[in-house]
């Protein structure tokens, strides 16, 4: 039996043209200041050089492919850097951002479509634009779109997003849930807690909104991939199950036990701990976990296959996570 290709579903592209587009616009300075407060000065000093040395792999498809060869990765699902969300932007700017992001990501992947698949962006801050943005991404040949864990003033459970969820389900688009920033703000502005604690927190909160609000009941065909292994939620889902059973206010929005919805979602394998990865596979199912590296950032892994092998899964589960599940998902797309 032939083994599937190795597929990394969590890899990013940097699009300088987007930053050139928004440079100097009202709102950008405030957004940067908020980001700086949330991360803290020590993190900002590290971030610049870290990104700078990774520019070739983030922007040049040839450098990307060479790095993939070194890692033993056959296919990447490439999404824009979350720094390109720009959820502060007005309607006109937001449309320019998503169009440019979708077209530039598609162009980055176009040279080697057998190895690079792409995801676009949608402006969560303008719900009325979401379906148009999704359709635009799909028209570029992209497999779906990437979103953050929330937009200013809106959670993913907001009723205004219902047309977007319906559209994603109808079209079979992949929705990659990748947080950017954490609303715990300055409480996490030291020791890079904004990322190490903030990102898994945001994943858990966003997924909980999708579960408890009934979004996954209303749209069971959604193809949502949660970055960072879904954060804290999969390994602490027992508390959510208890609340659903014990309290009428907790269980009023979703029809089933919260843990059952984990098997309706997909999760990348980027949890940085083989025991946590084994638990993720146990609670979500081996068919719902996909290889992810966060290529090429420092909070990712340089060797995602070795990280997966360290979990000591069965051969069948190992190959499913390594590439079989993602191959099937992308083939459906």
Structure overview:
Strand 10, helix 13 (274-284) and strand 11 (289-290) form a beta-alpha-beta unit. The protein has one domain (7-332): Alpha-Beta Barrel (TIM Barrel), CATH 3.20.20. The strands form 3 sheets. A 6-stranded parallel β-sheet has the order 4-5-8-9-10-11. A 3-stranded parallel β-sheet has the order 1-2-3. The protein has helices spanning 16-22, 28-39, 41-52, 55-59, 61-71, 91-110, 130-139, 162-171, 193-196, 198-212, 215-218, 237-246, 274-284, 304-309, 315-332, and strands at 7-13, 75-80, 116-118, 120-121, 144-147, 150-151, 154-155, 174-177, 223-226, 266-268, 289-290. With 333 residues, it is α/β, with parallel strands linked by helices. It is globular, with a radius of gyration of 19 Å. The two termini are 24 Å apart. The mean pLDDT is 97. The protein has 15 helices and 11 strands. Helices cover 47% and strands 12% of the residues. Residues 7-331 form the Amidohydrolase-related domain. InterPro entries: ACMSD (IPR032465), Amidohydro-rel (IPR006680), Metal_Hydrolase (IPR032466). Keywords: Lyase.
């Amino acid at each position: 039996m032939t083994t599937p290709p190795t597929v990394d579903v969590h890899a990013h592209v940097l699009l300088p043209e987007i930053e050139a587009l928004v440079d100097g616009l009202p709102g950008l300075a405030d957004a940067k200041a908020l980001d700086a407060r949330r991360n803290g000065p020590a993190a900002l000093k590290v971030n610049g050089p870290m990104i700078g040395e990774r520019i070739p792999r983030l922007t040049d498809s040839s450098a990307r492919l060479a790095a993939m060869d070194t890692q033993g990765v056959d296919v990447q699902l490439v999404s824009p850097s979350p720094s390109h969300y720009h959820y502060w932007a007005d309607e006109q700017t937001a449309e320019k951002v998503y169009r440019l992001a979708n077209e530039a990501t598609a162009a980055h992947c176009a040279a080697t479509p057998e190895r690079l698949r792409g995801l676009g962006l949608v402006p969560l801050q303008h719900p009325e634009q979401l379906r148009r943005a999704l359709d635009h991404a799909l028209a570029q040949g992209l497999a779906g779109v990437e979103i953050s864990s929330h937009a200013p003033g809106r959670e993913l459970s907001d009723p205004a997003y219902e047309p977007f969820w319906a559209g994603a389900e109808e079209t079979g688009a992949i929705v990659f849930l990748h947080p950017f920033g954490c609303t715990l703000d300055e409480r996490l502005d030291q020791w890079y807690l904004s990322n190490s604690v903030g990102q898994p927190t945001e994943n858990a909160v966003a997924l909980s909104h999708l579960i408890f609000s009934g979004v996954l009941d209303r749209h069971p065909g959604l193809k949502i991939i949660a970055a960072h292994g879904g954060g804290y939620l999969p390994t602490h889902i027992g508390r959510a199950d208890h609340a659903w059973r014990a309290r009428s206010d907790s269980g009023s929005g979703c029809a089933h036990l919260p843990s059952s919805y984990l098997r309706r979602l997909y999760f990348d394998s980027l949890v940085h701990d083989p025991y946590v990865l084994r638990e993720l596979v146990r609670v979500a199912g081996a068919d719902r976990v996909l290889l992810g590296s966060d290529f090429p950032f420092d909070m990712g892994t340089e060797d995602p296959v070795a990280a997966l092998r360290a979990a000591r899964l069965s051969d069948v589960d190992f190959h499913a996570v390594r590439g079989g599940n993602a191959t099937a998902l992308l083939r459906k797309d």
